[in-house]
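Re: the 289-residue chain
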Amino acid sequence: MEPSRRAQLEAWLRYADELGLGPFYLHRVPQAAPESVRSPDSPSVTTAAETRSFAPEVSSQSTGAGAASRTPVMPPASRPAATSTFLPSLAGTSLFEERVDNDSLERIRADIGPACTRCKLHQSRKNIVFGVGSPTAELVFVGEGPGHDEDLQGEPFVGRAGKLLTQMIEAMGLRRSEVYICNVVKCRPPENRLPEKDEIATCSPYLIRQLAAIKPKVVCCLGACSAQTLLNTTQGISRYRGEWFDYRGARLIATYHPAYLLRNPGAKSDVWKDLQKIMAVLGLQPKRR
């Protein structure tokens, strides 16, 4: 095996080991797992702050192509600020990805099934929360996992954080039905904790298939968990929030989770800047009051 190919394979095997999926061969030398990073935006009980309008007053400030040109897209491997823990791709594939010809959201939902028991999250969930929105959306929002309200209704982002996300979408000049919204894991983690590595490893292939079936222009990761999953990193979101990455033909950007904004409303201005970058790529104009 060529040295470069071997190095890529070993990197993916180390990643699998961190997720508790190994060993894949005998006599392995144990690799020290990187310190886990807890997302700063995991859901918690919040106030009714989401009732305030998200977007500031719209001025004549440009959100056109010039804004996009100030933030060029680069693959993770070439970004000096975030290269140390990004893992190399293995010929553009993932060990955990299922490739299905002529895939569709309906087929992915059917493959998951109405009573999935593939990981321990099924023990306390009420509903599988698959995703909602347009199957041809140019913009996909990806969160970490369902919360209490989402578990009851079977739809992502319908609680307090979901109402704020809807305001964010409308401030961009879009309707909720025009985008697609989903999560890394499809079942609610107990007490709204972060999804664990084995749960992410089990469920994230369905997320990857969802994105491949939709083929969006832009993927917006809401919070560290979704960004870390899709970018294969353990770095905190503050290291790369608002930066562009290439993701399988789409442009990926990470921003703070709406639940984090409910607890830290001062961060809304940062998220609005990130949303304006997305709007510039999609040619959108902000909603005027």
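The chain has two domains: 1-35, 43-282.
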